[in-house]
Design brief:
11 helices; single chain; alpha/beta; 306 residues; Rossmann fold
Amino acid sequence: MQDDIRAAIRTEGKEHWTESNGQKLFLWEKPAAQGPARGTILFIHGSSMASQPTFDLQVEGMPEASVMDWFATRGFDTWCFDCRGYGRSYKGEDMLAVISDGAEDARAATDYIMARGGGPFMVYGISSGALRAALFAQRNPDRVTRLALDAMVWTGEGSPTLEQRRKKLDEWRGATRRPVDRAFLLSIFNRDHPGTVEDRFVEPFIAQVLALDDSMPNGTYIDMCANLPVVDPERIEAATIVMRGEYDGIAGMADLLAFFDRLPNADKEFAVMPGIAHASFTQKNFLLVYHILHAFFTRPEPAYRG
């Protein structure tokens, strides 16, 4: 199959269901389009949208808009799931969906996938999904071979977006959920650096997010404004890449470099992504993000460590 930079084919998705803490958890699978599979990737979404619009975005005439299709075309089994509080998973009014809950959901998702013969896992998380992924890797080192943390914060220092968000902390604490609409989703694309978003993705993305949710849980907002740090880099054993968009208003550079410095595994990488703001997979330079991730996930293990 052609390995062109844009090459992707539509692959058939399969829905799966399991439980996390006794509550329903929705999983979405796109298996490798060619075999044998090169490994299993688990994608973990962020605070303000469910998993399918984030990782399996459908845009007419652009199969490469779906990172799951792009990696499935290259021989990876790909999975995502809706954290409880989002999308098609349990959304009861009691579900605040803090970062620790998301790490529990990742554990439940991998229980299910491993029972079907998948894993161990290459894990990618974005924004609060990166915190969920990092905490999952910290708690379950035997399950994660490679860990990709995109648009993450560690302590929150140097984050102008979080500085503004803290002004509403009492509002977030006063309710389990917050409404989301078209205007809010547009603000994600424009708040850091207008012009970075791929225009063809905007309307499909908004439509696919709002088809699943008209509100989002407040747990990750509360954690990121008041409870950081929630992960300890010195307890993350997996090979790790930290990915930071040039214009990202959440991920402070010095904060991430301090996190990176404390990672104990020497197989680690820090990638600065030019021309990219916070939502990496919806940017004009999205293919650059794919290739950074692909290079990291296909890197051979060190033959010598000393």
